[in-house]
Amino acid sequence: MTRARTGPGAVRISAGRWKGRRLEVPPGARPTAARAREALFDILGERVAGARFLDLHAGSGAVGFEAVSRGAARAVLVDLDVEAMRSNAERLSAGDTIEILASDADRAIRFLGGRGESFDVVFSDPPYAGAGEGAPGVSEAGEAARASGLVAVGGILVLQRDAGPDGGSPPVPSGFTRLPQRRYGRNVFEFFARTSR
User: How is domain 11-194 classified at the architecture level of CATH?
Assistant: First the structure.
């Protein structure tokens, strides 16, 4: 059995009640760099406090755990490999502030929509095309369109993508306004604010 990383390759929560706590990272995951994650939460700012937060393609769950650490009311973390996330949630005594779904993003979006869920912040970090063996990548435009249905009016959709030569901005989903994108190394964050249903 392949072990999750807990050493230097692991990630740490950068602020809030779990500041400095280390998270296990599943094998093959590419966690959002600490600098980019901190910048993301600086941009989200007051949106995080009390928020309902969805983290798609969550990997270690670092972004969702960071959100709860910084005051989000609840985070739903979605990934096919959830062993490391479950271990992280247990070690942090996260309780019912964290829900973990062992699912691909499409099924999870349908499931959460069927449950009548909506979120103040939806964060999606889909696999980049060619990001590892057997990883076909995900259409960022399609991902944005599907995930947009779970964003509450007044909420925000954040799509993380690669800044490589094929990385273009996806179209604005219906009912949304595009906000300025931010780039940190190869990480590009696209922001879409929901203005209407």
Answer: 3-Layer(aba) Sandwich (3.40)
